[in-house]
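Hi P.,

Sorry for the delay on this. The queue was packed all week, but I finally got your sequence through. Input first:
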Amino acid sequence: MYRFQRLTQFCICGLCLLLLGLVGCQAGGAGTVRLRAENWNPTPGGSIQASDLGSIGDIIDLESDLGLGEEEGLWVYGVEADLGVGTLELTNIEFSTLGSRVVSSAIDFGGSSFEAGTIGTNFEVEVTKVRNKGSLFGLGPVGLKYLWGVDNLIVDTTLSGTLAGKGGEQASITRTLDEWIPTIGVGAYSIIPIGNDWSFELDAEIAGLWVSVGDIDGTYQGTTLRAGIRQGSGILLGVGHRSLILDIKDDGSGTGADFDLGGTFLFLEWAI
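Then the structure:
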């Protein structure tokens, strides 16, 4: 139900952005709306804030300890609108992966202890990005741009297993981080005509927050690289690479994670 509500909110916001862009076009401005879909294949890495009771302080690795190192495929959807005061972007990323691993000693997770044995894991990350972009200046065929906005980051980690000292009781423990993060960044782009109303486009962006604010423990960074061929001013088809690096910790609950998601994608963008 919660994910359905989040998807509904994203669709409503995207529709509003689409309507604003169309209104800008009808008003005689240089309004353009771009709808984009990416088939992203990231691989998770890093660790969560859980400790091996046999070696207090050792954090639990997502890959070697919990078996969460497999590549996952997912869709990333975004909409951009040129409104005369820069370009507004709304993008939604939802990543989830399941794992299972036999651990040799008890572990502590968010104040709950699991016995040695099979531990199941459900790791979910959702990022909704709201960004404003604008041109800075050009250097020959390359243009530079600024980015600023806010991201809503939600990280859910669920461990399932046998609780220590509970007579074999099975349980699933979930810890959630939900944070609104201000972001700033820069980017570069280039459009190269290749004849017959076709063009080759390159785009690179890096944005995030590199200071400790709220649950962000010093690093929140997203990087996107795209390259594609556009026909006229309409459809753009290409490939790219997206990465997300996070260092987060909720001091109130003792829940945290230090992880990264990165992988290539194919994308289709339609400008209207």
